[in-house]
Amino acid sequence: MKYVDEYRDEKLAQALLARLKKIVTKPWVLMEVCGGQTHTLVRYGIDDLLPGGMEMIHGPGCPVCVTPLEIIDKAIALARRNDVILVSYGDMMRVPGSETDLLRVKAQGGDVRMVYSPLESLKIARENPNKEVVFFGVGFETTAPPNAMVVWQARRQGIKNFSLLASHVLVPPALHAIFDSGDNRVQGLIAPGHVCTITGLDDYVTFSREFKIPVVAGGFEPVDLLEAIVMLATQLEEGRAEVENQYSRSIRTDGNALAQKVVADVLEVCDRKWRGLGMLPKSGLGIRAEWSEFDAEKKFDLAYITAEEPADCMSALVLQGRMKPNECPAFGNRCTPENPLGAPMVSSEGPCAAYYRYRRPAANEVVTIGGKA
C-alpha cells in the first residue's frame, strides 16, 4: 500500500542510517512525543540502531496514558448507573480506575458500548430515548474535532439524551512543563504528525524559539522516523534550531482550518489535570458554557469525584521521559497488560505496552524494517 510499504522499505531505512552515521559526532538526546511513534521505534528497534550514543526519550504522547485517574473514575461512575449507556473507544476499556475498569463494569452488567466513531453514540441515543447516552471523549488535538462535531450534531438533530465526558489535552503545554524542568536533557524534538495535521506548526515554531531546540514534525512509519531523526541530527550538528516538516504528505503549515473552527465553536482552552504531570494551566479543552447541556460532568454533577495516582505506579516518571518502562521495578511482574498498575501498560499507544511486547526477554516477536525476522 502506498505510504505504508514504501515507508517500511529496508533499503531506504539502511540508507538513512548510513547517512546518520556520517552526520553524528555527539551523543544527542531526542524525544518523540506520539505514542504511535514510540511503538514504531521500539517495535523495529530503531532506537537501538542509532549511532554515536544517540538516545530516544519517550514523551507524554499517549492520550489514554495521560488521562487522569479521576476522569476514569467518573466514567466508571456513569457506567454503573442504570439510566446511562456509556459509549467509548475500545482503548479506554482496560484502563484501571481507582478500583476497577470499564470492562469489568460491563461484565458486571453496566451498559458500556465500544464504538469506532463518536457519531455512533448519536444513533444509540436515538434508539434509546429513555436512557442517557454519554460518550467518553479523550485525546489530544487530533480527536477534538470529531468529538466537538458530535456535540454540534446532537444540538442540530435535537438529541437531548446525549452528553460528552470530555478529557482533551493539548501537547505544547505538556512539553513546556517537561522542558522547563531542571533535569531536562532533550536537545531535539519529533513533534506528533497527527496533531500537526490539525493545528499546523505555529505552536512548535514558538516552542522551538523559546527553548532554542530543533523540531521536526514527523510521521509514524520507520522511514518517517529515521528521516526525522536525520533532519534533527543535521540541525544539531549545524547549530540550528528550526521547525521542519518531515510529514509533508499530511501536514500543512496552517493545519486544518475546518477542524480548528468546529473545535473553537464547541470547546475552549481550560486548565487540565494530566496523569504523570499533574494540573497544567491552559493545557486542555473543555465544553463551552453555551454548550453546557451536553457536558456530562455538569449534567451528572461529577465534580465530587477526585483521585490520586497510585504510589506504586511509576508511569509519571515514564510519561515525563525520566524513566524507561523496563526500568520500573513493577514492569512485567506486578504490572502486566492483564493486571496493569497504570494506563501506559494497556493502551495501544502506551510506552509500557510497547516495551512489554517487544523488549521483554520472553518476547519472541522480532521485527525488522520491511517485515518479521
What this model shows, in words?
The protein has about 375 residues and is an alpha/beta fold. The protein has a single domain (about 1-310), classed as HypD, alpha/beta domain 2 (Rossmann fold). The protein contains 15 helices and 13 strands. It has helices spanning about 10-25, 35-45, 45-50, 70-80, 100-105, 120-125, 145-155, 170-180, 195-200, 200-210, 220-240, 255-265, 295-300, 315-320, 350-360, and strands at about 30, 55-60, 85-90, 110-115, 130-140, 160-170, 190, 215-220, 245, 265-275, 280-285, 365-370, 370. The strands form three sheets. It has a six-stranded mixed sheet with strand order 4-3-5-6-11-10, sandwiched between helices. A hairpin with a 3-residue loop joins strand 10 (about 265-275) and strand 11. The longest helix is centred in the middle third of the chain and has 17 residues, at about 220-240. The two termini are about 20 Å apart. The relative contact order is 0.17. The model has no long low-confidence stretch (mean pLDDT about 95).
